Amino acid sequence: MSERSFVDTNILVYAHDSSAGDKHKLARELVERLWEERSAAISTQVLQELYVRIRRQATRPLPRSRAVALIEDYLAWRVVVNDERSILGALELERAHRISFWDALIVQAAITSRAAVLYSEDLNDGQQISGVRVQNPLLP
Known about the structure:
Oligomer: single chain
CATH topology: Rossmann fold
Strand content: 5-15%
Number of helices: 6
Helix content: 40-55%
Shape: globular
Distance between the termini: 26 Å
Structural class: alpha/beta
Radius of gyration: 14 Å
Number of strands: 6
CATH architecture: 3-Layer(aba) Sandwich
CATH superfamily: 5'-nuclease
C-alpha cells in the first residue's frame, strides 16, 4: 500500500469537471491512481465543499442525484470528521503558518489522517506543515 494522501476539494472538482482542460486530465489521473492504491483520505469539509461546488459552481453543474452518488462513492475513502480538536488545531496552524482558517482546517485533517502528502493547489507546492508535504499535482 502506498503512503496515505489527503486530497483537497479543488483537485476533486477538477477531476469531475471535463471543462477544466489540462487540470481535469491531471486531477482525474491522480484520483484514478489513488482509487487503485486505496491510499486517499478526505474530510467532511472536503465532501461538503465538493457537493456545493459541483452542484452550483461548476461550468456544467451535476444533477442532485449524480452529485449525491459521487459523494457516496467518496465515502469509501478514509474520511476525517472535523471535531472540536480539529478546529482548535486549525486555529493554531492558521496562526503558526499564516494561512487561512479553511486551508488550516484542510491541513489539520491531513495531519489527523496521517497523510504524508496533501494534494492541493491552494497552498505552496513543496511546503511542509507539521510533517505533511503539500504537492500541487496540477503543475507542469
